[in-house]
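Exercise 7.
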Amino acid sequence: MIAPPDTLPPDFLAGPNGLLARPAADFATLPLRPDAGTTHRIEIALTQAARKADILTAFARAFDMPRWFGHNWDALYDCLTDLEWLPEGQFVVLLSGSAAREKDRITLLRLLEDACDAWQDAGTAFHVFIDPQLLAAPTAA
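Solution. The predicted structure, written as C-alpha cells, is:
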C-alpha cells in the first residue's frame, strides 16, 4: 500500500519501510539527516521506460547492479533485497516519471513493497518515494 504525501518527520528513516507518494519536485527537500549514518539516495526516472526491459535497465544503472543481474523481475527482487555490492546503510529510492504498461507498473510496485518488507525484517531502512505521476500513468498495450 502506498502512503499518502503527508508531512515527513525528520526521523522518517527510523520509521517503518514502505512506499510513499511524493511529487518528484519534493525529492530535493526530503529530510535526510547526515547523522543518520550512510544514506544511499537512489534516483530513478522512468520517463522513457515504456517497456519492462527499460524499467529493469533503469534500476540496474541506478543501483549499479552486478554483471550477473538477469534483467527480469525475479532478478530485480533478488538484487534489491541483497545489495551486498553497496556499502551498508539506509536506502531512499526516488522513483519518478511513468511506465507505459499498467501490468509493469503493478508488478514493479508490488516488488518494491516486498523489498521494503524484506529490509524491514532485516532491520534496514529502505524507503521508496514514488511520484504520483507514475501511479496515474495511462495504460498502454
